[in-house]
Amino acid sequence: MNDQRAPQTILETGARPETGTAPETGARPRTATPPALDPVLRTRTAAARGGAEWIFGGVYGTILSSALLAALQNEGTPYTPFYDAAWVLVTVGAAALVHGYAHHMSSHGAASPEHRGAHRWKQLGRELRDEWPMVAASLPTVLLLCLAGFAGWGEPATTAVGLGLNTALLFAWGVFAALRTGYRLAPALLIGLADAAIGLAIVVANALIK
């Protein structure tokens, strides 16, 4: 008489059941718990994100400063470089505050723990503090306008120097950002030229409009 054997059941570990042992029923595959994120990797990720944010702030602040410098040039009226410097600084500062607030509101839901109690205000303070590169990027333009006020430089020359300076800074920002993200020197220079083209566009628009 041939013995009929019950089909053997493979357990979670892949081992066959021992003879005489009833197979475990209802066994479910175990889900491996994902390993905790490496603290070093987490730190590097946060640093990379922070670096990208201040590079963005530097480029944005430089472009905004160039646009304001070109817009404030008004021939036929008394030149007020100190007023222009204050206007550039206040406008860029306001833009930084608005950008930080908008970033905070868009990245934290109302029901999230980060949006509750005192932690919400601390997080908002960090978001606003991280916008400092945008304000710092406007300082070359502000200092140039203050120097023009002390030295008595004319408005057309000051505007031309400021736009040229910011165009060079845009090129430097583009090259630096590209090298930081792993590009080789030749592609990084091309990216820098692409950023500088924005500054040149402002120069051309200023010449055509004025």
User: What ranges have pLDDT less than 50 throughout 5 or more consecutive residues?
Assistant: 6-17, 31-50
Query: Between the first and last Cα atoms, what is the distance in angstroms?
Result: 107 Å
Topology, number of strands? 0
Q: Please give the count of helices.
A: 6
| Beta-strand percent range | under 5%
Radius of gyration: 30 Å
What's the mean pLDDT score?
A: 76
Biggest sheet layout: none
Q: N-to-C SSE series? A: HHHHHH
Helix percentage range: 55-70%
Principal-axes geometry comes out as globular
Global structural class: mainly alpha
What can you see in these coordinates?
This protein is mainly α. It is 69% helix and 0% strand. It is built from six helices and no strands. The chain has helices spanning 39-72, 81-107, 117-129, 132-151, 155-180, 185-209. The radius of gyration is 30 Å and the shape is globular. It starts with 38 loop residues before the first helix and ends with a helix. Mean pLDDT is 76; it is low at 6-17 and 31-50.
Quick structural gist:
The protein is an all-alpha fold and 210 residues long. It is 69% helix and 0% strand.
What's the topology here?
Elements: H1 39-72, H2 81-107, H3 117-129, H4 132-151, H5 155-180, H6 185-209
What labels describe this entry?
globular; 6 helices; 210 residues; mainly alpha
